[in-house]
Here is the input.
Amino acid sequence: MIPENHPRAESLRVRDRLVECLRRGIVVEQGLIAHGRGEAFDYLLGERTTMHAREAIRAAVAMMLLAEHPVISVNGNVACLCARDVVRLASILNARIEVNLFYRSYERERAIEMLLRENGAEMVYGVGERASMSIPELMSERRRVDRDGIYMADVVLVPLEDGDRTEALVRMGKKVIAIDLNPLSRTARSATITIVDNVTRAVPLMVDMASRLRGASIDDLHAIVNSFSNAGNLEASLAVIRDGVERLGGGEVGSS
Ligand code: ATP
Ligand code: MG
Here is the structure.
C-alpha cells in the first residue's frame, strides 16, 4: 500500500500501474527504464504542468483540429498510463489511433489493442498485417506503419517517442507533436511541437483543451499555431528545470 501522505504518492501509483501492465504483457522492461528517465525530469519540473506546457498543449490541439488526417501513435507505456484519455482525445479530434511499438510482437500489439477497445476505441490501426508500410530510412520495428494510419497522416501525435522516428516522420513531411519530459531529447528538439510534461497530466489536459477549442474558427486556430515557437517553448521549459535544480539544491546539504 502507498501511504496517501507520501510526498511521491502519485509517482509511486504510476509505477505500480506500469508494473501491473508489464505483467499483462502491455509494457516491456525497457519501457520501465524509459519511464525512469522521464521521472527524473519530472522531479526537476516539480511534477506539475508548467504554463509553457499548457501553451504547447493549446498549439498542439489547434494543430490537430486543423489537420486533415490526425493520428495518435500509442506504445505500451502510453496505453498503460492513459488509454481512456487517448480514446477520448481521438474521438473529439476525429483522429485515428495506431499501435506503434519499438519492441514489436503480435501478442503485445493485440494486448494493447484490447486495452484500447476496453476503453472505448472502435478501430485500432497498425496491428498485425495492417502495419505493412515502412517509414523510409528507419531500422527499428517502429518503422512499420499502417497505410491508413501514420503513413497517410499529416499530423501525428507521438506521446513518448524515439528520436530516430521523430526525425524520420518530420523528413516525410509530417507535422509531429511530441510529449516528452526531457526538453533536451532528440525527439523534443526535432518535433514540430513538443509538450514538456508527463503524459499522465498532458493527455487529460489535451482532452479538456480539445473540447474548448472545438468550436473555434479556422483563423483562430491558425493564429494559435502560428504564434507558437517550439524552440522558445523548449528554452522556457529548460529554464524551469534549471530553477528546479536551484530550488531543490538550494539548502545546505546535511543541514537539517
Ligand atoms: P531521444 O531518442 O528522443 O533522443 P532518449 O533516447 O533519451 O530520447 P527514449 O528512451 O528514446 O529516450 O524515450 C524515452 C523518452 O520518453 C525520454 O526522453 C523520457 O524523458 C520520456 N518519458 C518517459 N516517460 C514519460 C512520461 N510518463 N511522460 C512524458 N515523457 C516521458
Ligand atoms: Mg531514443
The longest strand covers residues 70-74. The pocket of magnesium ion (ligand 2) is lined by residues 162-163 (CB under 6 Å). Residues 51-238 form a domain with the Rossmann fold fold (CATH 3.40.50.12640). The chain has a mean pLDDT of 94.
